[in-house]
Amino acid sequence: MTDCQNLIITPLNTAHNRPGFHCNVEALDNYIHKQAGQDIKRRINRVFVASLPDTPEVILGYYSLSTLSIKLSQLPETLTRKLPKHPIPAALIGRLAVSKNVQGRGIGKMMLVDAIKRTLSVSEQIAIYAMVVDAINDTAKEFYEQFGFNRLSDDSPRLFLPLKSFEDNRTSK
């Protein structure tokens, strides 16, 4: 499992070895082991799994993606002046985890890019203002901040990044 360049990211299915996934964060391990399948069936979350083509059943990492509304009062005032006075649609990466066996190899970054690409694609059909993430700890917070995510508010563990920042990068090329 050294070549992560051929990583594939697909929706979670019954062929994936969920009990074999461990990332050293109990809440993230428990989610993929016990709750992810139920959330998918109930249409609460979509879960995407990173694996390699020769061992597609081995989960190297996963992330969950869903929607939410952000209260205008949760956004920085510099943004709210330019927005309508009602909740703002967003995509939520509720969980992102990388197997302890392959941490530090860029899989988290690849999954984040995949989540952003999926969200940008959907945002062409359904309005989505920003990506929001739930940072489970300070390490996760630092990971997301290096990609431009900022706190929704001082008292919130959630971070956000307006999709406009990705569109600006696309049009400038």
TrEMBL record:
Tree of life domain: Bacteria
InterPro entries attached to this UniProt entry: Acyl_CoA_acyltransferase, GNAT_dom
Listed name of the protein: Acetyltransferase (GNAT-family protein)
Keyword field contains Repressor: yes
Annotated catalysed reactions: glycyl-tRNA(Gly) + acetyl-CoA = N-acetylglycyl-tRNA(Gly) + CoA + H(+)
Keywords recorded for this protein, A-Z: Acyltransferase, Repressor, Toxin-antitoxin system, Transferase
PANTHER family named in the record: ACETYLTRANSFERASE, ACETYLTRANSFERASE-RELATED
Gene3D superfamilies: 3.40.630.30
A Pfam family it matches: Acetyltransf_7
UniProt-recorded Gene Ontology molecular function terms: acyltransferase activity, transferring groups other than amino-acyl groups
Domain N-acetyltransferase: 7-167
Protein's UniProt keywords contain Acyltransferase: yes
